[in-house]
Specification:
Blueprint lengths: L10 H12 L10 H7 L20
């Protein structure tokens, strides 16, 4: 089975991606350190105490 040819992005799209990259913007399909930072869990171990529920009390 022949492999389909790799289609290049239209020049206007490549120019837009280059302009966004130059300005530090997020780009589709690229690693985004800001998103990783924002999506990371903010709760640290021990930040909240656990409820001490006696077994069998219906809670």
């Amino acid at each position: 089975m022949p492999v389909p040819p790799h289609l290049q992005d239209p020049p206007i799209y490549r120019d837009l991606m280059r302009a966004w990259a130059d300005r530090g913007r997020t780009l589709p399909g690229r690693h985004d350190p800001e998103w990783i930072r924002l999506a990371a869990p903010q709760v640290t171990r021990g930040q909240f105490s656990a409820f001490q529920d006696p077994r069998g009390d219906g809670r």
